[in-house]
Amino acid sequence: MNAKDELAGYRGKVLDSLKRINAKVGDLVRVIKNGKVFEGILIPRSEYGDDEHVVLKLKNGYNVGIRVTSTTQIERIGEGAKPAFTPPLPPKQQEGLPRTVIVSTGGTIASRVDYRTGAVRPALTANDLYSVVPELAEIAQIEAKILFSLFSENITSKHWKQIAEETAGYIQRGVEGVVIAHGTDTMGYTAAALSFALQNLPVPVILVGSQRSADRPSSDAATNLIGAVKAAAYAPFAEVSVAMHADFSDRTILLHKGTKVRKCHTSRRDTFRSVNAEPLAKLELETGEIKMLTKEFNKRDHERKLVLKPNFEDKVALVKFYPGMDSGVIDWYVDSGFKGIVLEGTGLGHVGNFCFDAIRRAIRKDVIVAMTSQCIWGRVNMNVYYQGRDLLAMGVIPLEDMLPETALVKLMWVLGQTSNKDEAKTMLTNNIAGEFSSRTLPEIIGG
Amino acid sequence: MSVDYSKLGLKVGLEIHQQLDTSTKLFCNCQPELSKEESEVLFLRRLRPTQSELGQVDPAAFFEFQKGVKILYEANNETSCLVEMDEEPPHPLNLEAVEIALTVALMMKATPIDEIHVMRKTVIDGSNTTGFQRTCLIALGGEIYVGEKRIPIEHVSLEEDAARKTGQEGKIIRYRIDRLGIPLIEIATAPVIYSPKETEQVALAIGRILRATGKVKRGLGTIRQDLNISIPQGALIEIKGVQELEILPLVVEYEVKRQLRLLEVREELKKRGLKEDDIEEKVVDVTQVFQNTKCKVISKALGRNLRVLAVHLPKFAGLLKRELAPDLRLGTEMADRARFWGRVGGIFHTDELPAYGITLEEVKRLKETVNADEMDAVVFVADNVENAEDALRAVVERAREALRGVPEETRAAKPDGTTRYMRPRPGAARMYPETDIPPIKITAEHLESIRKRLPELPEQKLNRLMQEYGLNKKLAKQVLDSEYGQLFETIAMKTKVSPTTIAAFLTEKLKAMKREGIPIENVSDNQFLTVFSMVGKGELAKEAVEEVVAWLSKNENATVEEAIEKLGLKMLSMKDLERVITETLMENADLVKQRGSKAFAPLMGMVMRKVRGKAKAQLVSQILKRKLEERGNC
User: Fold this and answer.
1) ipTM above 0.85, yes or no
2) What does the pLDDT look like over B76-109, one tens digit per residue?
3) Which residues in chain B have their CB less than 8 angstroms from residue A43's CB?
4) Cβ A116–B54 below 8 Å, yes or no?
C-alpha cells in the first residue's frame, strides 16, 4: 500500500486526527463519542465523502460513519488482519485445448472482494482468472495479458491502435482466437475500430464486457467471458465481434458483428444489439453450442494472412443535428482543422436549411461530410425530400444503413489510411468490414 | 418432560424482522406489495460465489453452484422493475423507511448512526437476484423493559426483504421477486432470554413498539422472528422464520428438547463403543436387492433406470427412529440433509422397515449386501447415481455429527413449532459496501424533529385506550397487541358505534375468524370503516358485521354495498318491518289469543329469526310490544 492509499479518501480535520494517531486503512481503531464506544477496522472514505466522518467496519460486519467532533476521541488499538487469500488451486491447463488469449483493457471481467475494506481487486493473471472462473480451463488454454486498465470512456483512437497491434501480434503467433475484455460504454466503437484495423482475419477477435460488476454473485461477467472464450476457441467465423447476454437470463450469449453493434440500454445485460443486421451467432451456455445466424461471415481459416491497418485520424467529428442547432458548431470544426464530419441527421438523413451554408463551406474547405441517421434503425435515403437532394448536391455523402458511431470510426480510419480526398470518399462508401448491409430486413426494432 | 430452563442454562436471542408500510420499496419506486397476478416475465440466472480475501466461500452456496443449480425468477410489472431484476442499479435509500427505523430506534433508546452506509451481505441461495442482501445499520445499543427486566437491544437495522420461493424442480429453484425490496426493520436483542415464555414476552414487547409507529405492515408473513438458541453442551442453533408470536415458546421448548435428545443419542453411541472412523463413507449399489420389489417408490424409480444406493451406519440400529421432537426423528434429520445436499425426494432406513412395500426378506438381503449386522442401520435412496451419492454422503456426515452431539446449523421453523434443517450455519457475515448508494448523514436537527414526534409508548397508549374509549383493561390490551390497533381508533373516532363493540370485533372476533381459515387479510381498512359507519347510521345491524366481513374476505374487489346486497342484509324499512311483525302476529293468532302479553317472548324469537341482521332487536321489541298491546286493547 503506498502512502497515498494509507488513508484513502480522508481529508481535512479527520485526516489530521487519523494522522496524529498513525492510523492506516485496515487498522483496528476505537472511537469514543458521547460516552459511546465504537471499535472496528478503519475503512477508506469515498472520494466525495465529507471531511467530518470516520468510517469503521464494526465487528458485526456493518460499516458506519461516525462524525468527529471536538470531543471525539480516536485511538489506534492495533493492526488489522492483513488480507489473506489463498486462491483455490487453479485447474490445470489442459494440453490439446485451443490456445487463446485474453487481453484486458479495463473493466473488471473477474475480481475478488476484500471484505475487510470493501476493495474490489481484479483478477490479473491467467491463474487468477482460472481460479475465479474455473470453467475456462475446460474450454481453452489461456494466456492473460493486461494491456491497460481504463474506463472505456477514457479509451481513444490511440488505444484502438495499441489493441489492434497487440491482437495482431497474438494472431501472428498462432492463437486460435483473441478475447478483448473492455468496458461496455464504448465497446461498440472499439469493435468497429478493430473491424477496420484488423483485416483478412484468420481467427475470431471477441470483445467482451459486463453490465453488472464482477464482484457480485449475479454478475454477467463470468458467463460473458465463458461465452467469449468459447467463441474465440471454437466459433466457425473469423470476425471481430462482441459477446454479451442475449436477454435477462444467463442462458444465451449473442455474438454481434463489430460494425453493426450498439449499446442500447444504460444498465441491462442485453444492452448490445445488432442494428440493421442479424447477430452473427448465438451460443448456448448450457451446451456450448454455437449456432450461426447469418450466412454472411468470413470463415475461420489459418491460411489467411492478417492485414494490420491500425492508424486513425483524430480530427473527425460526429455531430448530432437537433432543431434550431447553431450552425456555428460546424464552422468551429472546420476552422479547427477537422478533416471529416459525420452528421447524425434526422429521419432519412436531413438537417435544417439553416445549416446549409456551414455545410457548403465545410465541403468547399475539403472537409468530408457524411450523413447517417439519428433514428438508429433503418437506412438514410436523401432522394426522397428536396432538402435531402440539396444536401446531396452540396456533396454530403449518404452512408446507407451504417451506424453513426461506426461511421465516425470508419471515417477516422479512412483518413488514417489516406490523405487523398477522392480515395477517402471511395473507401468510405465501399463495404470494408460489413458496415453496410445491402438489404434492410424486417427485424424487430430494438428487438 | 418438564425442564428447568434456568438450571439448564438456556440462552435465547431474538431477531425480529418486520415489513414497513412505506409507499415504495427500499431501493426503487415499486409498490411494496405481493402480486396476485400471473407472472409476466421469467428469467433464469446462476449465482456465482465470489471469492473473498477474508472468510471462505459459503460452502453450501458453492456446492449448489457446482451442482449447476439455477434460479428461475418470476416477475410482474406491477410489483417489480429492473432494480429487482438486477438489471438497473438501486435508487437512493428510501428516506421514509429510514425515518421509521430511526423512530423505532429512538423509542428503544438506541444511538442512531451518524452516517448510514448501505452494505451488501452475500446471500447466494437465489433469494436475492443480486446475490447479496442490501442492509444498513441504523442504530446501536438500545434497551427495552419486559416487566422489571432490561433487555439490551444490540442493533436496529434496515434491509430489503428477499424474493419468495415458489418451488423447486430438480436443479431449478423458482423465486418470485415481488417481495424483494420491501423495507424490513431488523431488531436484534442480546441473548439474555432464559425461558420459552420470556421469548414470547420479549417479542410481544418489541412488536408493541413497532406497531406504535403506525407504519408497519400487518398480516401473515409481514413479521418474521429468528431465534438463536443455545444450551451448554449443545450448540448455537439459528432458527429462521417464525411467523406467529404464539408459537415462539413452543419453538424454544422443542429446540431444547431436540438438543437434549441428541445429547442422549451421543451418549448411547459412545456406550455402544462407536468411533467416528467406524462410519465409512462407502456407498454400495444395492439395486439388485430390489429387482422385484413391491415398494412403489423404488419400482417406479427402477422403471426410470435409476439406481438404489446404500450406506451402512454401524451401531445405529434403533437410533434413527429415536424421536427428537414431535414428528422429528434422527432419521428425519438425515433425510433433510439428503434432500438438501442430494436433491433426492427422501431416504429409506432400516429402523422403519419392513414397511412401504419393502419386505423383511429384502431388508435381510440389503443388510447382507452391505455387511450390516443387527446393531447396525442401513440408509438407502433411489435416484440417479450423482444425487444418491451426494445424499448418502450427507447422511454419513450427519451420522458422524451425532457422535459429536448437536451440529451447528440453520433451521427453519414450521407452523407447528418444530424446526427442520435448512442449511449449514453461514460463516461470519460477509459484507462489503454497496457502492451504488451514497451514505446518508443523519443530523442532530433531523433526530430532534423525530424525537418531538415520537409515538406514545405502549404503557401510555394502554391507559389512553381505557380512558378515552372506556375499554376495559383486557380489551385495551388486546387492541394494543392487535395489528388493527390503529384501525380501531380510526373507526372509533369516525363512527357512532360503541368502542367496545369495535374493539371486541377487531380483536376477538377477527382472531376467531382467522382461526377458522377466513382470509380476513383481504379486507381493507376502508372496508372495515365503511361497514362500521353503516352500523353507526343504522343501515346495517351490528350482528351482520361478521357475515359481511367474511363475505368481503372471500370476494376481493367487491364493495361493502355489494356484500350487503348479496347477503340480503339490507335493513328493513319501518314499513317492511311492521309488515313482517303483523304477519307473524296473524300467523300466530291463536297463541296471541291464549297467552296475551305472555306471547311476547316466543313471538320475538319468531320475528327475529325472520329479520336477523336486517333489523335492530330493540326496534323489533318496541314494535312487537306496541302491536301486542294494541291487540290486547281490541
Assistant:
1) yes
2) 999 999 999 999 999 999 999 999 999 999 999 9
3) 433
4) yes
